[in-house]
From TrEMBL, chain A:
UniProt GO MF annotations: ATP binding; metal ion binding; phenylalanine-tRNA ligase activity; tRNA binding
Enzyme class: ligase
Pfam families linked: tRNA-synt_2d
NCBIfam families reported in the protein's UniProt record: pheS (TIGR00468), PRK04172.1 (NF003210)
Main subcellular localisation: cytoplasm
GO biological-process terms attached to the record: phenylalanyl-tRNA aminoacylation
Official protein name in the record: phenylalanine--tRNA ligase
Lineage of source species: Eukaryota, Metazoa, Spiralia, Lophotrochozoa, Mollusca
SUPFAM superfamilies linked to this entry: Class II aaRS and biotin synthetases
Length: 329, 579
């Protein structure tokens, strides 16, 4: 049996062997020889070559976003570059009593060297002593013996509200009082038990408004505007307790993935026992709210162990691959 | 935040309604509590008995038991009117007496007392009674250091009672759950291995005298704050309870006593009628307890309305406050509300505590959201602005940012960097739980080297940087310490890359408009010795004659000390000196 084929010349038939070019070269361009060459097909399905670049840390990209949001809302940044604080500013000036559990050595890092702060605005300090031990400014007070030795003890600040206290005191010394809007995003320290979501140090975000006649509705409205910029709508408020704010409200939002309300922040109106001894005028109210930087970041980037985000155990590949930070997306 | 475990069956019985978890959760949300279903392993109730764990605000001592929670919620739901708590002298006319002797001043000066007359316990209420004392001990009593509660079967002992303080060898009694008598010294020994009682021993251990309460026949009721006596212990059959609270803080002792009696007064034959007791002070004066103080506060309706951002009538406001447990009525034609603050609300210190309750009862989520008219021009903190600008530029130069811990071990900033701790001027932490929190860092190097260690498998070169605060002791600051903003960068590769780090330094200076100059008008680098760096490969960075930092190749011992194995060039400068 025989099989026969009929062959004819196709359009690409050539009697010389030619190789397909891979790339256009400078010579081809200047000599015009590209016109006679055929070029190999590109594989558009492969990836390109990543440019060599540096990378910013994911958490600090989020910090920059929050900074931006506060600035857009007209909030001035507080100077928070002081990790070491006295118990006076961290607790006493905030009307947090000296026998409060949070002042325990197992919640707070105390300093052995330098153990004590040595300078305070003494006139103000006496007013703080008074309001704690005997009351005044319309308050019953706590009815205990306030100790200067206790107030002098240095610690690693447990919240940036210590700086807020310093700033409000400073604002109160300016006569006449001018309304202020402050914010800060900086490190705080807690001597608690550590686990997957808790470290000894983390970043606190805090916003404060002090003005005449602010209402609870204003606090809620401000917090709402802030969270709207983060793309979080439909927030709810729950009664809570802080030693230095009354009313106090925890802020919740509905988490689609977990299908429940999750806490996204804390807020309140500073107590008169804190503001009046500072010398702030009677009609002035100070509203404040705060949240941690790490928690929303972990939720956004789906990080389950906080040590993957902050500290030396961070996976640099995660840092290299991390996208631009758009909190409202 | 304190939590109270409650049996759901008992809770729903008190509330008069069987709630789904969601319904109860919503109720808690509105009131200011947080509930979750208790896992079986929490081991509080009997197996098969469903429980809720309810988290209550730390300043609400009246919510630390199911009785208090149930009562407050019923009042909130308007299903119950807040009870009136009364303290009355006994039917016989003669109050129980507790005499405080002067020796107690050395160790635990204050005491208060009261009687729960004709009380009837059930298994649940008995357990709740013990639990409440425990919660109060942990919470307001600051683990018994401030106040200790002792409850006794009054029918097993004979007044008048004496509160004294005696040398430990002179105190001998049969303590709770013991089978024989021990002296106080022996009890201290015995309890030194008891995990439950051990934490309280140091409160009195080293004192010359220990507190002790005994009755007219010398029977010991308790040795506060450690343990009660077996003789007077409360059982399910106890009908009359003598309560004593000894303390170092009298204000808290009074609150604690009022809390215990108001909560459990509901089980007395005459509910909420508490029998008075007399406490005779060392100076002879007599004080009668419990005080159960009610006080009136008058609030201005339009003031409260303005502060919250609502507009309700005085009558409506009075109703809201009554729902929160403070009986109130509108007066002066509705312009004011007269509020009665009951003994169960020791948390109400100021007018703000009252108007907060108006807002809670109104519902935070029912308020109108407004934006304040506060007009301000925002300013950035200059150091932070500079930091963010530099971060972006160093990143553009090809370095990757790290974020490391501010606290570390002493070794990290000293031995591992071939320096002596005494030269570091570091701030030391008094109570570190582990080595990782011994000091606040004085240099950013250890953190970045540790990050290299954890990323050894990443492609080379590893070029990392960080701009963050270190801490130094500083007498010129009111607290004695200051932060300093540092910038650190490393090049970790098969070859050290000193020129890479030097190049980065040149770029930084260019960005900050500091020209290279040898004559003190700009910056230059000058060879120097530094034990952290390889000899001959380290330089001081001088800006206008002042040193702002160093750069160089790290010493091999530093490299191996951080469990690394490739050459590394590093740069660390004080950014504040370049502002």
């Amino acid at each position: 049996k025989f099989t026969s084929y009929v062959i004819s010349k196709g359009s690409n038939f050539s009697s010389s062997v030619s190789k397909q070019e891979v790339e256009l070269t400078p010579e081809m361009i200047s000599k015009g020889t590209w016109k006679e060459k055929s070029f190999k097909e590109y594989n558009f399905n492969s990836l390109g070559v990543m440019p060599p670049c540096g990378h910013l840390h994911p958490l600090l990209k989020v910090r920059a976003e929050y900074r931006q949001i506060f600035l857009e809302m007209g909030f001035t940044e507080m100077p928070t570059n002081n990790f070491i604080e006295s118990s006076f500013w961290n607790f006493d000036s905030l009307f947090q009593p000296q026998q409060h559990p949070a002042r325990d050595a197992h919640d707070t890092f105390f300093i052995s060297d330098p153990a004590n702060a040595h300078e305070f605005p003494m006139e103000y300090l006496e007013k703080v002593r008074q309001v704690h031990s005997k009351g005044g400014y319309g308050s019953q007070g706590y009815g205990y013996d306030w100790s200067l030795d206790e107030a002098k003890k240095n610690l690693l600040r447990t919240h940036t509200t210590a700086v807020t206290a310093r700033m409000l005191y400073k604002a109160a010394q300016q006569k006449p009082f001018k309304p202020v809007k402050y914010f800060s995003i900086d490190r705080v320290f807690r001597n608690e038990n550590l686990d997957d979501t808790h470290l000894a140090e983390f970043h606190q975000i805090e916003g404060v408004v002090a003005d005449y006649g602010l209402t609870l509705g204003d606090l809620i409205g401000t917090i709402n505007a802030f969270f709207m910029k983060l793309g979080i709508k439909n927030i709810k408020f729950k009664p809570a307790y802080n030693p230095y704010t009354e009313p106090s409200m925890e802020v919740f939002s509905y988490h689609e993935g977990l299908k429940k309300l999750v806490e996204i922040g804390n807020s309140g109106i500073f107590r008169p026992e804190m503001l009046l001894p500072m010398g702030l005028p009677e009609g002035v109210t100070a509203i404040a709210w705060g949240l941690s930087l790490e928690r929303p970041t972990m939720i956004k980037y789906k990080v389950s162990n906080i040590r993957d985000l902050i500290g030396p155990k961070v996976d640099l590949q995660m840092v290299y691959d991390n996208p631009v930070c758009r909190l409202d997306k | 935040m304190p939590t109270v475990a409650v049996n759901t069956s008992e809770l729903f019985h008190i509330l008069g309604k069987k709630y789904t978890f969601e319904e109860f959760d919503n109720l808690c949300f509105d009131f200011g509590l947080e509930a979750e279903v208790a896992e079986e392993e929490d081991g509080q109730g009997e197996p098969g008995q469903e429980q809720f764990k309810i988290e209550v605000p730390a300043n609400r001592y009246d919510l630390l038991c199911i009785e208090g929670i149930g009562r407050a919620l019923l009042v909130f739901l308007e299903k119950l009117k807040a009870p009136r708590y009364k303290s009355v002298p006994p039917a016989s006319g003669k109050r129980q007496q507790l005499k405080i002797l002067p020796a107690t001043a050395q160790v635990r000066p204050f005491a208060v007392a009261a009687v729960l007359r004709n009380i009837k316990f059930t298994e649940e209420s008995y357990k709740s009674f013990i639990d409440l004392q425990d919660k109060l001990h942990q919470n307001i009593c600051r683990r018994r250091t401030l106040v200790a509660i002792g409850t006794h079967d009054l029918d097993t002992v004979q007044g008048p009672f004496v509160y004294d303080a005696k040398p430990p060898a002179d105190i001998k009694f049969k303590a709770l759950n013991q089978t024989r008598e021990y002296t106080a010294s022996e009890l201290m020994e015995l309890y030194s291995v008891d995990s439950h009682l051990k934490p309280y021993l140091p409160i009195i251990q080293d004192k010359p005298v220990y507190p002790v309460i005994y009755d007219a026949n010398g029977v010991v009721l308790s040795m506060p704050p450690i343990i009660n006596g077996e003789h007077s212990k409360i059982t399910l059959n106890t009908r009359n309870v003598f309560i004593e609270c000894t303390a170092t803080d009298l204000t808290k002792a009074r609150i604690v006593l009022d809390t215990v009696v108001t909560m459990f007064g509901q089980y007395c034959e005459q509910p909420f009628v508490i029998e008075q007791a007399e406490v005779i002070q060392p100076d002879g004066t007599t004080l009668v307890y419990p005080e159960l103080p009610y006080r009136f506060e008058t609030i201005d309706v339009s003031d409260v309305n303005k502060r919250i951002g609502i507009n309700i009538t005085g009558e409506a406001m009075a109703k809201l406050l009554s729902r929160m447990g403070m009986e109130s009525e509108a007066i002066n034609g509705g312009q004011n509300v007269k509020v009665e603050v009951p003994p169960t609300r020791a948390d109400v210190l100021h007018f703000c505590d009252i108007w907060e309750d108006v807002a809670i009862a109104y519902g935070f989520n029912n308020l109108d959201w407004t934006i304040p008219n506060t007009n301000t021009i925002a300013n950035q903190f200059p150091l932070n602005k500079l930091t963010d600008l530099m971060r972006a530029e160093i990143c553009a130069a090809g370095f990757t940012e790290v974020l490391t811990f501010a606290l570390c071990s002493r070794d990290d900033i000293a031995d591992r960097l071939r320096k002596d701790i005494s030269t570091t001027n570091a701030v030391h932490i008094a109570n570190p739980k582990t080595l990782s929190f011994q000091v606040a860092r004085t240099t950013l190097l250890p953190g970045i080297l540790k990050t290299l260690y954890h990323n050894k498998n990443m492609p080379l070169p590893l070029k990392l940087f960080e701009i963050s605060d270190v801490v130094f002791k500083d007498d010129k600051k009111d607290v004695g310490a200051r932060n300093e903003r540092h910038l650190v960068a490393v090049n970790y590769n098969k070859s050290s890359g000193f020129e890479v780090i030097h190049g980065l330094l040149d770029r930084i200076m260019q960005l900050l408009l500091v020209p290279p100059a040898q004559d003190g008008t700009g910056y230059c680098i000058q060879a120097t010795d530094d034990s952290t760096y390889f000899p001959g490969r380290c330089a001081d960075i001088l800006v206008r004659g002042e040193s702002v930092g160093k750069l160089g190749v790290l010493h091999p011992d530093v490299i191996t000390g951080f469990d690394l194995n490739l050459p590394c060039a590093a740069l660390e400068i004080n950014l504040e000196a370049l502002q």
